[in-house]
Write a structure and sequence with these properties.
heterodimer, A: about 500 residues, alpha/beta, Aspartate Aminotransferase, domain 2, 3-stranded antiparallel beta sheet, 16 helices, about 35% helix, B: about 425 residues, 2 domains, 4-stranded antiparallel beta sheet, about 15% strand
Chain lengths: ~500, ~425
């Protein structure tokens, strides 16, 4: 099933929405403004009635898999159930209707919520302060690196390198580079953990920070994290925590205690704010005392029972976003923290680890498990063992879509060939995990008995495998002027 | 416990299946010295008690009625059709992940493709991306594009750009080797001239002249635009700007204390390979059915890693969806009516406030659309007086611009009905 574009459904002259009339006597823009400032042709927007709009978007919605309907085993993405109470909380007029430039005296509840959320996040990760301003994970990473850079510069120390493990997410090196650092890769050892010998050889007075996630992207806890921290700190560098995998150990251990100086968190992963098909999220960053002066401004402070925004922070790196961050997402996360409490968050992490190990056990012998367990909240399997049958990770992914499961993260981390990265989270039942393991077995069977059909999968989705290469080629020809077909947008064909 | 699914019996069975006796055996890799006894937070609450606490926080905020809100400064009250929340509230949209598996994500992908088209149409440029975080980061990302494109490192900010956008641009620039200067005379070091239309005070700038000046110096022109103004004003593509960016909050999103909102960015086709963030393209499957895919990903961080020119990974997809529903609901003529109603009401309000003794327009020779600056005697007591009457008065801008002492910007949109305007004028003069 496919759906026409709103532009194609549009019928000229069909419908006009009823909107408020001005009701005052005043000249029109055409009467007052110089002609050259006015738009010559109206934009070519679709024209649809409300019933048609609702039908159109309902049909589009039905083309999506979503966590409300399907299991999303996406590794490193922490696709938990998104509590509906969070949505109700964010929609309260007392939050949704607030203008960011109201007097602080009239926004005390919002400021208090931010202040409380900051304290809760401090407790979870073991840091002194948190900025809630970054809008997303990558934004938080970069914010943390800018703070680390400002810290070194404040001591007259011009460090130029950032160390990133070879298993890291692509945003890590990109965030480092965009802060003006050069990126040096640190290798993983054969057990999938960071190689202390390689780290030792890369550390120098040039290094500003090591970016690390723990558990790492293979789902393995870095057992030697305390040694890593000591080595890094001994050279005067800082340790940055990528919070992608924070869901593994809430209430069990804390990045702050491991020696991390800056800790980023994804509220859209660990703290259940919905992904929205790719945002909005929120990527707060927690810091230890040394980095506190460099936090983006404004911070939220409490004095004499009143909450206020503090802009007087002379060493602050400045703003990283307008206003105070994705406030609506902060409301959702805080609501979740209240409902779960310390006991609930702890149990959530324990269940996440339990589920991952259980599922890992279920796929043992079907897929290759290149690293020894136990794992934390996720594990990386490999379809490498299926190469003789011509089955690739991509085939397994597409075969799962036909069985009403979303696919695991594939071909990441880059250090595992034919990687399938699986993170079940605490909100998937044992029955779902069993069904998923069963589906993987079926897919592998299909690949052996009817390889052609698996290579052509998915068959049951609204469309089949799409010609991504062809699309890229057409765009190239459009961009170079050889073709008029825009590909990246719809355009009316002029007759 | 809320949202958890395993029963104690499930947990026992799962541990047994794994072949361990306790959770501790699964946590062996964590050094004992790092283990904590408990997470120091209060225990969880029932949904009833959770919501009671959240509601009591919400009740500590004072929300002004839409019709009595005359404050803008980058966030505006607008009429939001009910259809917007009805669509964005569909769990198939808001609980979907970023569309990595296109066959299972066509709803999101097609919606973004429509958004890209809507923004390209509004701005009069060739291609728009899937959205960015907000207007401020959109200005910063566009500036980075210009820097890479021209190999020059100065960004020239002309006129009254939103002060928080400027601050974010400076924070981005530090470390990326971008220097930000205020002024309107580009030179051989200038990568781009950035201007806002209408500017932060609501005033129209000579976008055409600024664009020509940028081009004459070999720099790009970056227009930061109000999307609703584009129903009336010449779009950036028409006067030759290379990149258009802006904040899309007005397209169906609640103020929500400043976020989440949505940034947009569009450019000429020869700059597409420098565009940050997600891009969706049209494709087809083996049976010839049309579908949509993430494309030109070689620009992005997960392929280019440290060589990427932006680290943005996602976009603000759900906010972009809200904007798409809003624009589709309005259509070109509806959008024009919204813009014209706002224009006329703002004109009417400006005329009436200009007659208040001691008040005068701050820039009488300049044109505006729906936001305008007035010089007001004693702004602070005045705004306090208005607040007591339930009116969110204008925005005092001297906190950012010292030279604008006593200047307050007022905004008027289709939600400020004539009776509300009367109330404001009466409250001011009483």
């Amino acid at each position: 099933m496919t759906e026409l574009l709103s532009f194609e459904l549009s019928r000229p002259g069909a419908y006009e929405p009823r909107l408020p009339e001005a009701g005052v006597s005043a000249p029109t823009p055409a009467e007052l403004l110089p002609k050259e400032t006015l738009r010559a042709e109206p934009p070519d927007l679709p024209k649809l009635s409300e019933p048609e709009i609702m039908r159109h978007y309902s049909r589009l919605a039905s083309l999506n898999y979503s966590i409300s309907e399907q299991f999303y085993p996406l590794g490193s993405c922490t696709m938990k159930y998104n509590p509906v109470a969070n949505e109700a909380a964010a929609a309260l007029p007392g939050f949704a209707g607030l203008h960011p430039y109201q007097d602080e005296a009239t926004t005390q509840g919002a400021l208090e919520l931010m202040w409380r959320l900051e304290r809760a996040l401090c407790a979870v990760v073991g840091v002194d302060r948190v900025t809630l301003q970054p809008a997303a994970g990558a934004h938080g990473e970069w914010t943390a690196l800018r703070m680390i850079q400002a810290y070194h510069r404040s001591k007259g120390d011009k460090r130029t390198e950032v160390l990133v493990p070879d298993s890291a997410h692509g945003t890590n090196p990109a965030s480092a580079a965009l802060s003006g650092f050069s990126v040096v890769e640190v290798r993983s050892g054969p057990d999938g953990r960071i190689s202390l010998a390689d780290l030792e050889s890369k550390l120098s007075p040039r290094v500003a920070a090591l970016m690390l996630t723990n558990p790492n992207t293979l789902g393995l806890f870095e057992r030697e994290i305390l040694d890593v921290a000591e080595m890094v700190h001994a050279t005067g560098a800082m340790l940055y925590y990528d919070g992608a995998n924070l869901n593994a150990f809430m209430g069990v251990c804390r990045p702050g205690d491991m020696g991390f100086d800056a800790v980023h968190m994804n509220l859209h992963k660990t703290f259940t704010t919905p992904h929205g098909g790719g945002g909005p999220g929120a990527g707060p960053v927690g810091v230890k005392a040394d980095l506190v002066p460099f936090l983006p401004h404004p911070t939220v402070e409490k004095a004499d029972g009143e909450f206020k925004l503090d802009y007087r922070r002379p060493q602050s790196i400045g703003r990283v976003r307008s206003f105070y961050g994705n406030f609506g997402m902060l409301v959702r996360a805080y609501t979740y923290v209240l409902a779960m409490g310390g006991d609930g968050l702890t149990q959530a992490s324990l269940d996440a680890v339990l589920s991952a190990n259980y599922l890992r056990k279920q796929v043992e012998g079907v897929l290759d498990l290149p690293h020894e367990g136990p794992c934390m909240h996720e594990f990386v399997a490999s379809a490498h063992n299926l190469a003789p049958q011509g089955i690739k990770a991509l085939d397994v992914a597409k075969g799962l879509l036909d069985r009403d499961f979303y696919a695991p993260t594939i071909y990441f981390p880059l250090v595992v060939p034919e990687a399938l990265m699986v993170e079940p989270t605490e909100t998937e039942s044992k029955a779902t995990l069993d069904a998923f393991a069963g589906a993987i077995k079926e897919v592998v069977e299909q690949g052996k008995s009817d390889p052609a059909s698996l290579h052509a999968a998915p068959h049951t989705t609204p469309v089949g495998r799409l010609d991504e290469v062809g699309t890229a080629r057409k765009i190239t020809s459009y961009l170079s002027g050889q073709s008029e077909e825009p590909i990246l947008r719809w355009k009316r064909v002029r007759k | 416990m809320p949202y958890l699914v395993h029963s104690p019996q499930d947990r026992e069975e799962m541990l047994a299946a794994i072949g361990v006796e306790s959770m501790d055996q699964l946590l062996v890799d964590i050094p004992a010295s790092l283990r904590v006894d408990e997470l120091k937070l209060p225990d969880g609450l029932s949904e009833f008690d959770t919501m009671a606490q959240v509601q009591s926080l919400a009740a500590k905020n004072l929300v002004f009625a839409d019709r009595l809100t005359f404050r803008g400064g980058g966030v505006y009250r607008r009429f939001i059709p009910t259809a917007v929340a009805a669509v964005t509230g569909k769990p198939e949209f808001y609980t979907a992940y970023t569309p990595y598996q296109p066959e299972a994500s066509q709803g999101t992908l097609q919606a973004i493709f429509e958004f890209q088209t809507l923004i390209a149409e509004l701005t009069g440029l060739d291609v728009a991306n899937a959205s960015l975080y907000d207007g401020a980061t959109a200005v910063a990302e566009a500036s980075m594009m210009a820097r890479v494109q021209t190999g020059r490192d100065e960004i020239l900010v002309a006129g009254y750009l939103h002060p928080e956008y400027l601050e974010v641009l400076r924070t981005f620039g530090e470390g990326r080797g971008m220097k930000v200067r205020k002024g309107d005379e580009p030179n051989a070091k200038t990568a781009a001239v950035v201007f806002q239309q209408p500017d932060f005070l609501g005033l129209l700038v000579d976008a055409r002249a600024l664009t020509e000046r940028a081009h004459a110096a070999g720099a790009l022109a970056i227009a930061c635009v109000d999307p609703i103004s584009l129903a009336i004003l010449a779009p950036p593509g028409e006067y030759g700007a290379d990149i258009a960016v802006g904040e899309g909050q007005q397209l169906g999103l609640a103020p929500s204390y400043g976020g989440p909102h949505v940034g947009f960015i569009a450019c000429r086709k020869d700059l597409v390979r420098r565009l940050p963030g997600r891009l969706i393209g049209s494709s087809h499957d083996a049976q010839g059915r049309r579908g949509f895919v993430l494309t030109l990903t070689a620009r992005e961080q997960h392929i280019r890693r440290e060589k990427a020119t932006s680290n943005i990974c996602t976009n603000h997809s759900l906010c972009a969806l809200a904007a798409s529903v809003y624009l589709t609901y309005m259509g070109a003529s509806g959008l024009r009516q919204v813009a014209e109603t706002s224009f006329k009401r703002a004109r009417s309000l400006a005329d009436r406030l200009g007659k208040v003794p001691g008040w005068e327009p701050a820039f009488p020779e300049r044109q505006f659309l729906n936001e305008f600056p007035m010089i007001v005697p004693k702004p602070r007591p005045l705004l306090r007086k208005l607040a007591k009457k339930g009116i969110l008065g204008g925005l005092e801008v001297s906190r950012w611009f010292r030279e604008l002492k006593g200047v307050v910007t007022f905004t008027c949109t289709e939600v400020n009905d004539p009776a509300a305007i009367d109330e404001l004028v009466q409250a001011v003069t009483s």
